Description:
The chain is an alpha+beta fold. It has helices at 16-26, 29-45, 47-63, 165-172, 178-184, 187-206, and strands spanning 2-6, 10-11, 78-82, 103-110, 119-121, 126-128, 134-138, 145-147, 155-162. A six-stranded antiparallel β-sheet has the order 2-1-3-9-4-7, with helices on one face. The protein has a three-stranded antiparallel β-sheet with strand order 6-5-8, with no helix packed on it. Strand 5 (119-121) and strand 6 form a beta hairpin. The longest helix has 20 residues, at 187-206.
Amino acid sequence: MKIKLKLPNANIVNSEANAAVIDDLINSVPFKRLSGYATGIFKSWAPKLYDYCSRQFERLLASDNSLIRIFDNSVLASAAFNFGPRTVCVPHIDFGNLPFLWCWIWGLGWFNWKKGGHLVLWDLKLVIEFPPGTVAAIPSGVCRHGNTRIRKNETRYSFTQYSSGGNFRWVDRGFQTEEDYRATRAAEEAKEEEIRKRDRWEMGLNMFSTLEELGLHT
């Protein structure tokens, strides 16, 4: 069950029953606190990436007052709730997400985290113990991930926050589709865009803060 902003400038439509449940969830104190906690980590450990995401998100929201901001204390456009009751994600990459933006994953429920529910980062060859109430931030658009099973008498739920790359492209294209943008841009603008595309991976990588930039030392 999820709610998120969607291109070109609309919110995903949920069924009446799901919409009521989602409204209760996003207005509940526990999920507001989880969202706020993640935001605090985001600001502290990736301030440049946070500022970029915040600026783009504010521009998106300002372009159309019908767009929904899910959590007042978050700069991420999307959220998903999975009620399991034994949530397992097979290995996958979220190709629709902005590649260098972090996706926030909360593991919730009641299970023996020594025996199951581990976070698996396949490309990094890491299997990480992931107790209930734990949050992880990963660039899910490029990092293959999933989680291990839990036992039948246990429960595991998940809550994630993220933003799609389409939202950022919509803003960068002047709030128009890729096709419309290409049809109206000048030749010089097309050259500049090709350079930006070529260097975008480096731009994203440079938004990750180093320990020295954060005032920390190894």
